Amino acid sequence: MNDTELIAALRDIFPAERISATTADREAHSRDESFHEAHLPDVVVWPETAAEISALLRWATAHRVPVTPWSGGSSLEGNPIPVRGGIVLAMYKWNRILELREEDLQVRVQPGIVYDELNRQLRSSGLFFPPAPGSSDVATIGGMVANSSSGMGAVKYGLTRDYVLKLQVVLPTGEILNLGSNAAKSASGYDLIRLMVGSEGTLGVITEITLRLRGLPERIMAAVAIFETVADAAQAVFEAIRYGLVPAAIELVDPEIVREINRWEKLDLTVAPTLFMEFHGNRAGVEEELAFAEEVCRDHNARSFVTAEAAEERERIWSARREAHKAVKYGNPDHRTTITDVVVPISKYPEMVDQAYAIAARHRIRVGTFGHAGDGNVHTEVLARKDDPDELHRADLVAEELVAYALQLGGTATGEHGIGIGKIKFMRQEHGEAVELMRRIKALFDPAGILNPGKIFPD
Amino acid sequence: MNDTELIAALRDIFPAERISATTADREAHSRDESFHEAHLPDVVVWPETAAEISALLRWATAHRVPVTPWSGGSSLEGNPIPVRGGIVLAMYKWNRILELREEDLQVRVQPGIVYDELNRQLRSSGLFFPPAPGSSDVATIGGMVANSSSGMGAVKYGLTRDYVLKLQVVLPTGEILNLGSNAAKSASGYDLIRLMVGSEGTLGVITEITLRLRGLPERIMAAVAIFETVADAAQAVFEAIRYGLVPAAIELVDPEIVREINRWEKLDLTVAPTLFMEFHGNRAGVEEELAFAEEVCRDHNARSFVTAEAAEERERIWSARREAHKAVKYGNPDHRTTITDVVVPISKYPEMVDQAYAIAARHRIRVGTFGHAGDGNVHTEVLARKDDPDELHRADLVAEELVAYALQLGGTATGEHGIGIGKIKFMRQEHGEAVELMRRIKALFDPAGILNPGKIFPD
Questions:
Q1: Which among A424, B75, B264, B322 could bridge B331 via Cys, Cβ 3.0 to 4.6 Å?
Q2: Which among A106, A188, A441 has the least Cβ separation from residue B430?
Q3: Cross-chain Cβ contact B183/A105 below 8 Å
């Protein structure tokens, strides 16, 4: 089918102003925040109803035209890059709260609403959605559900997965399904919701989401601890978690990343291994958690432990931490930045961080590490000069060896970024024969293979 | 195939002493704790390895012989009753801890280990598995995973689903798959673990489970509040949850059930609407939670609010609550006891409890309600004299109307007991077209339809 025929067919489904084949629109939907190669879609459409998506997918299945859902574009593994061309389904304008059920601690939203914006709109109700991805200012709820995203809040509050009560999804064959209920828990039938969560837009298009919410805590305290060595900081995290501390966030940032944050954000944070923490609870409970956290940090040679309670102060701390990836990526425009996303069992966290430096040193590659230490989730920023093919190759080896090492430790290739394009090569090693079962599920849902093709599965 | 041929075939897979076709063994595996009609299997086998189960299922698929996994036998919807005969796969002797990874807060177990026994063995490590089903003294971990069970701990700690890191499963076609990793979170590939959780032994046989654990809290306090009316107690639960209380348990028991508990356990609890609560946390945090809970209860006319900290005292309180279902069932041997398991959005909890009495009154049927109020999970015990066909019929109507009402409120037919046989009739109403997708997944996993046939799906 040529582009003219394609657009003519789309005009039967969408009004002309919501279809674009301009170079600018195609380019804007050809890459995400990862380093993966851009691929131009043939056309971009902006749907407004599930019925439109149903008609589109039915048509695309009949004509074997690839369709790739696109939400925030903030993903880090090439998840929404339309590698086979075809149609990009741009979801981000579809961004309203449809129903706040304050008395049930639930909200029903369109998929394109951005995480921070959702929580901003919820604030007056005293409720919030807690996973807190690093890219909270751009990540959409639909994208978070599709990619099984989480973030700093996972250690206390759990994953996006745990908050999804209902989904409306359109299957590649056009059926519109309503999954789940408004009940806080259910043991009724197969858990199709959790099957959709993390399927990265390969099984269906998510058109509506009902989330469980949490009450904003009575008290929030942040703390920043500065350590002598990364090993000390990592060990402190392990001990704190092992002995029952449940921080709302506990993030380890190494000196290399602190340096990048300082440079990018014009700050003067102490360049040293740093733990950023937050505690949520009632007044007295938070006080005790903080005291315990300080004790553990001091036991591991923390040279300072500073707390903050005022909202602006806390925001200052967290905005520094949140900018880590951007600081590295945009602060080094002549470098390619690859971010890894391994998770290892918590006792292996110090070893995994240590290995990041060891592997990088062996290949003479610059790295920095940070991440959701409380979950055992290590992000390593792997830097390589864009004009140096050998260095780029060595950086690839570093990223691959890091994942292989994490898998050996019983970990996973990705804690929250998904498989996308970048982690396909580890699917077999991580999942073994189960990959075939996943593939059969994919074929069951998407017999023509039109939905986000080229992702998750090895060829 | 006649029984002799069947047993001969099984002898190729299992040693003779782990195969039985005696009437006693067949009868012992013909019914669960529900009122559903017993069905005799042709034979019972006790597997000891995944390889045996693989060989069995491969053979059963080839010969189209039904196989029904059986663990604690404590289910309440007929989930493991071998309604099509064939082979019962008795898992409960397979009950060891295989590996305690204390430093990772994880444990790997065989499927037949009983919930209380697991936590007893974990105690010295300071760790525990928190969902706390009502039948904790008999429910096996394999059964809990298969049925997506939870219980009193769900309101604070979440569901069994949230704790499963790895599963070994044998598919009906004989493949042995290892799903998941030791990482605390993962966004790698489709979530086959959550698809297995709650599939009630219809998609595969679970042969090994790795669970995430939690640290035992520093402090535990229990509280019992006595109210004037059930409506007051229900409203207190709603307000407490709405305003951010996170109890480790909050259970509402109505006077009818208190009376049954007193009779069965020879206790003299005040016969009145009663909330049983527990709070877990650090010393000061628990104190504050308790004070808040008391305030909310007093605001709703609680006439007493008594706390308990010593372990024996707490155990006395909880053993009373845990015996609720047994007290009703075994305390009324001349009655059939049907227990419902609906969950409604928390704001509808008072209405749902109220409806239970209204519907029962309309049909002149005796009921009592209790349940996991913090999740909106209402268990109604519906009683009918076994020798009175009309009363039995009216009791059926009560149970059905209760579920229909919960579904109308946006709830679910079952929060933790599963569909089994008893809730099949509501599948279509609750899930609509999604039932067909579930059925196609069933066919993908189990092409010959041998695994626990006759469950979950309407004919």
A1: B264
A2: A188
A3: no
